[in-house]
């Protein structure tokens, strides 16, 4: 197939993992005879330095015309006190592309059990898909910041909630048939809306799905005490952001967590969950596996290439099993070496 893919390397280690992602796409295209047109564009701090904007108009236009978009990482202390921050570009592209559902899988692997602080018996058979609402809630609400007081407004509409619930339910139907909706309905009005809409949507459309409700504090505890009990976990923007970072402890490293941000139509945005890690940028220490697993999600969910996606995912885990990985996972390879370990299993 032919596909137009835009790469947004970004800041810190972003360009390093974007290089790994690009190499993976090129290897898959060669192996299966696809024609991927790969182009790069500025975003984040790099874009601020070059244009004054975290998401230049030309970058957004290129992404809107693409079949899929890959993002490395954005941000860093260099721009902490700047008038515009790199993260504003990330929020803006999610909004502009209508990317309201963020999918973050957390899948454990025997080769990574020792990298996790949890006991091995709690890591077996963990396969969780977190579906996080991405364009609403407190991150996008009105806010006021002052020296003596500040406030952030959290708001959701039934439409915003319902469309994420449908995404989660359809994913569960293709997995193990269970959805856990996480909220704080004993305190928050928005959470009570989420709970009411979940009850209504699942009763009408998904009576076959096993549905449970869980307060976010309990979910945080059970994510570490009995993670294998979860299948699909759906929640609002803030809770999803926090819980998926916690889930990185299950798989051993943030360098193993990929993600996909999807809307109803148009290109999806695929990115590793780790940050820009400016403290290790340019040192060859960055773990490329989350980026390459994000490419696997791009292939499957963005381009409909399930066989290709599975091959890339298998190649990553085969490299892990052979201890051909970076230091954060107990290996001795640099970024390029770990990337090559995956690519040799695709050729």
Describe this structure in words.
The chain is an alpha/beta fold and 347 residues long. The protein folds into two domains: 1-98 and 263-347, Isopropylmalate Dehydrogenase (3-Layer(aba) Sandwich); 117-251, Isopropylmalate Dehydrogenase (3-Layer(aba) Sandwich), CATH 3.40.718.10. It contains eleven helices and twelve strands. The protein has helices spanning 14-32, 45-51, 57-65, 86-96, 158-173, 189-205, 216-225, 237-251, 289-302, 306-321, 335-343, and strands at 2-10, 35-40, 68-73, 101-107, 127-133, 143-145, 150-152, 178-183, 210-215, 232-235, 260-262, 268-270. The protein is globular and about 50 Å long. The model has no long low-confidence stretch (mean pLDDT 96).
